[in-house]
Design brief:
Binding site for 2-oxoglutarate: 127, 129, 139
GO molecular function: broad specificity oxidative DNA demethylase activity; cytosine C-5 DNA demethylase activity; ferrous iron binding
Largest sheet: 2 strands, antiparallel
Order of helices and strands: HEEHEEEEEHE
Strand order of the largest sheet: 1-2
Cofactor: Fe(2+)
Radius of gyration: 18 Å
Distance between the termini: 35 Å
Pfam families: 2OG-FeII_Oxy_2 (PF13532)
Protein name: Alpha-ketoglutarate-dependent dioxygenase AlkB-like domain-containing protein
């Protein structure tokens, strides 16, 4: 897998963008904010990657497989594990997730993203959705320790899933609510 990722020609990857006021914090100087996306890894390689990840990754159990929502503790509705540089943790929903040492497969993906976008991430949260019942709840990725100048990268392997972005003002009520039709 590592060698196949290195062989991909970055300049041949087609990018698409979503443009919308307030979409994210990444204003490219044109007065419109962008979120960019692509399918940079061909299907056959993506299938090989997911097969390798399925065969090598061990997901958190015990307290690290639970989440506190509105004061109540629930099992995570997905499998999860984290990797990163020494000493890194990630906190969300009263859960502190420790970064395990980078396995070769995940390190290869991090290096691919660096080659692709020039950003060297120090942490990754791997979520495995086993079936149509596993999910990620609505969230903002606005934890204080996250650097707001560094975009969040998301790689998805396996079955196609809907990735929903919702404008923060669409959550408000009354006069402050921004009516934004689904895109």
């Amino acid at each position: 897998m590592t060698e196949k990722l290195k062989e991909l020609i970055i300049d041949e990857i087609a990018w698409k963008s979503i443009k919308n006021n307030g979409l994210d914090r990444n204003d490219l100087g044109m007065g419109v904010e962008y979120s960019i996306y692509s399918t940079p890894i061909p299907g056959t390689l993506a299938s090989a990657i997911i097969k390798e990840l399925d065969g090598t990754l061990e997901y958190f159990t015990g307290d690290l497989a639970k989440i506190k929502v509105f004061g109540k503790i629930y099992p995570l509705p997905r499998q999860q594990v984290a990797f990163g540089d020494p000493g890194i943790t990630y906190k969300y929903s009263n859960l502190t997730v420790p970064a395990l040492p980078w396995p070769d497969s995940i390190l290869a993906l991090r290096n691919f993203i660096f080659k692709l976008k020039g950003i060297k991430y120090n942490f990754v949260l791997v979520n495995k959705y086993r079936n149509g019942n596993d999910h990620m709840g609505e969230h903002r990725d606005n934890e204080p320790e996250l650097d707001p100048t560094v975009p969040i990268a998301s790689l998805s392997f396996g079955e196609e899933r809907t990735f929903v972005l919702k404008h923060r003002d669409a959550r408000k009520s009354g006069r402050n609510k921004k009516l934004i039709p689904p895109g």
